[in-house]
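Customer escalation, tier 2.

The customer says the design service returned an amino acid string that "doesn't look like it belongs to this structure." They asked us to rerun it and document both sides in this ticket. The original structure tokens are below, unchanged.
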């Protein structure tokens, strides 16, 4: 695992909120300074900007196990989802399947399509788990798209059957989309059958805001008609007949209409390099017992756990429901434990700069807070 000296904040507190904001490594500050130097050089510095974009894209492709040309860097995962939603030739009667543990970005992009006659069908979870059978039963020839998060932001539920679900979606001629925001960089992910994948840069990928990863499978690339086109997405911007026609770049690059967010890309490259050095397989393996310990000890405290008990669904997130979630979060922060607290729940997230000592500190503080709430519930 990387040394905590690369993440100063993790040495100061028990930082258990990567699912909201990941900690960038100290190298990111140096990368931002390098960006400024390259930008300050004016147009001669552009070459280094584009080189850094390529380097970061290749690193992300390696993390995904994909070819670099299948990866693009947009402004956010939300932009990636909306771009997909606006690039499909929808027909009245088409159906989209999502589940009820989704983050709003993977809901809103599809709801707005209802005005075009598209139906959004909701698959209900059961005790924090979305049974594969519920998806299988809901699929039909009308299914045009299935879009799911690999890990739920709310409960931390990992979907272990992504490849099987993709196969079923394709059997009906649909497209399979995965939001990997809460998984990529923390859990091993296979792209088997995935047509389109998005992920934010500022959580488990240890980057900054302003960048979002998109993976576009070759098969979907051939069918997709990007809703936005700009100088950055076409092959030759100064061709003689440019006022008459254009040719899109091959692969995922066609999704990028304009200049990317270079500062964020510079920093993201540092975060991804840390993850590649550590190895996502190793991160997941080493932290599995830490996450299991956290869930088990929260269960012993008697809180209403939202995270399933079965390790097959485990990720880096453990959360529980509580009517005074925000108060609990504030009290934990005063004790040097940073978690997410809102939406009626408290969420812990464990990444490569965490260890068992963070869990011990967090649970001890939480136990004290819960005892005080029993005495003074207001």
């Amino acid at each position: 695992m990387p040394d905590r000296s690369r993440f100063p904040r993790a040495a100061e507190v028990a930082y258990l909120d990567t699912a909201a904001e990941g900690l960038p490594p100290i190298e990111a500050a140096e990368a931002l300074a390098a960006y400024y130097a390259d930008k300050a050089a004016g147009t001669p510095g552009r070459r280094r900007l584009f080189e850094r974009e390529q380097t970061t894209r290749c690193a992300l492709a390696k993390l995904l196990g994909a070819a670099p040309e299948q990866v693009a860097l947009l402004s956010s995962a939300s932009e990636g989802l909306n771009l997909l939603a606006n690039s499909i030739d929808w027909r009245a009667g088409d159906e989209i399947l999502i589940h009820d543990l989704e983050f709003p970005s993977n809901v809103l992009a599809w709801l707005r399509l209802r005005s075009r006659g598209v139906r959004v069908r909701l698959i209900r979870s059961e005790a924090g788990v979305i049974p594969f059978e519920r998806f299988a039963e809901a699929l039909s020839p009308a299914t045009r798209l299935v879009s799911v998060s690999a890990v739920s932001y709310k409960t931390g539920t990992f979907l272990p059957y992504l490849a099987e679900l993709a196969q079923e979606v394709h059997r009906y001629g649909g497209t399979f989309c995965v939001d990997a925001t809460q998984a990529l960089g923390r859990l091993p992910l296979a792209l088997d059958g995935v047509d389109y994948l998005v992920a934010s840069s500022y959580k488990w990928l240890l980057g900054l805001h302003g960048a979002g990863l998109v993976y576009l499978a070759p098969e979907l690339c051939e069918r997709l008609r990007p809703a936005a086109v700009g100088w950055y997405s076409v092959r030759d911007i100064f061709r003689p007949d440019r006022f008459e026609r254009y040719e899109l770049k091959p692969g995922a690059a066609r999704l990028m209409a304009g200049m990317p967010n270079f500062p964020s890309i510079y920093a993201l490259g540092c975060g991804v390099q840390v993850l590649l050095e550590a190895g996502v397989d190793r991160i997941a393996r080493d932290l599995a017992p830490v996450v299991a310990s956290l869930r088990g000890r929260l269960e012993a405290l008697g809180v209403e756990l939202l995270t399933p008990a079965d390790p097959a669904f485990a990720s880096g997130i453990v959360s529980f429901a509580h009517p005074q979630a925000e108060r609990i979060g504030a009290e934990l922060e005063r004790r040097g434990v940073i978690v997410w607290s809102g939406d009626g729940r408290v969420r812990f997230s464990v990444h490569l700069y965490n260890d068992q000592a963070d869990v011990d500190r967090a649970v001890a503080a939480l136990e004290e807070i819960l005892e005080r709430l029993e005495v003074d519930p207001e």
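Tier 2 assessment: The sequence is consistent with the input. The CA atoms of residues 136 and 168 lie 7 Å apart. The chain has a mean pLDDT of 96. Sent an explanation to the customer and offered a walkthrough call.
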